[in-house]
Amino acid sequence: MATTTVKAYGATASTEDLKPLDIERRSVGTDDVKIDITYCGVCHSDIHTARNDWKGSTYPVVPGGHEIIGRVVEVGNGVSNYKVGDLVGVGCLVDSCQTCSSCEQDLEQFCEKGATWTYNSPDKHIEGAQTYGGYSTSVVVDEKFVLSIPENLDEAGTAPLLCAGITTWSPLSHWKVKKGDKVGVIGLGGLGHMGVKFAHALGAHVVMITTSPEKGKDAKRLGAHEVLVSKDAEDMKKHQGSFDFILNTIPVGHEMDPYLGLLKIDSTMVLVGAVEPLKPFHGGSVIGGRKRIAGSLIGGIKETQEMLDFCGEHNITSDIEIIDMQDINKAYERVTSNDVKYRFVIDMKSLK
Ligand code: NAP
Ligand code: ZN
């Protein structure tokens, strides 16, 4: 398969900083769209993968698969939905089998044969290679995994919708959060700030549950009606047993019992952040009140397009800080030390 060399940034080992790399992209096939990347969001998952926190990273890792925005510069003969010049996005997925029962239900993220992730997955097109993410100047993707971006939205602010957006939208939608529900969002980071915006737009009574009291003002500006500081025992007691739904974006293992205590009878807490062992929790925390703990992984392509269209109608984008590609290692430090408002987005001009 013919390839083209493009500029990228990646990690060659879990302990190394990210640095400039050259990577190969396949030439445009019949069903492919070639995208000139303009912006790419920085998800905490990029850091987990670059640093091999979840094990299973194959180096070099070129992260940034999750939140790619760009313009179409070339399309294959079989492409019907996109043309040169279109504003498009790519999220966490670039391929799946298309025939298993998950794929048939538009849940490609749970493809039974294994979805191909935008980075750190075996590349089906270039033998022996891994997929490489959006910290690069261009990418070639099957049109089925390309999303259409509403032109009225701010281009850079749209990038994080492709991961932070869909990851918070999908559970709110699956668990049918509706007008008047009391919804808690735990963790005001990249995911959490989108969770607050969506829950607000759906008409819920939104409570930001945070460890950082200084973020309270921002939380309200983003759409929270109340702020609950989880380190404040009195405050936690006041909200006991009162939530219809809680979205938990904490990125590391943590105590579950205090948060489970906030749920009402028959209500659900959805975990999206901690892909690692949680501290043991007391069975009584869910037995009393018939409560549920659930999980959620990004969202399928159809649902991602629905979320983007909703954002287009309601003019919802992410609150971002734009950085140059060369600042990525500093940005990683700031994300892990909880100093980001509320998503870094790389201006890919800096790499070109
Ligand atoms: P982030 O920007 O770092 O935000 C996480 C927030 O959680 C922080 O801002 C902080 O908010 C809170 N937090 C951090 N450490 C905490 C602790 N020890 N205890 C309690 N709260 C803590 O991260 P993100 O990009 O939103 O990603 C969140 C997690 O979701 C990551 O692990 C990421 O890998 C994962 N993720 C999952 C999916 C999926 O499909 N399931 C998709 C994308 C990302 P406060 O200051 O407000 O407390
Ligand atoms: Zn499948």
Automatic annotation (TrEMBL):
Residues 13-346 form the Enoyl reductase (ER) domain. It holds the Pfam family ADH_N. Keywords: Metal-binding, Oxidoreductase, Zinc. Its cofactor is Zn(2+). InterPro entries: ADH-like_C (IPR013149), ADH-like_N (IPR013154), ADH_Zn_CS (IPR002328), CAD-like (IPR047109), D-isomer_DH_CS1 (IPR029752), ER (IPR020843), GroES-like_sf (IPR011032), NAD(P)-bd_dom_sf (IPR036291). Its EC number is 1.1.1.1. One of its GO terms (molecular function) is zinc ion binding. Belongs to the zinc-containing alcohol dehydrogenase family. This is Alcohol dehydrogenase.
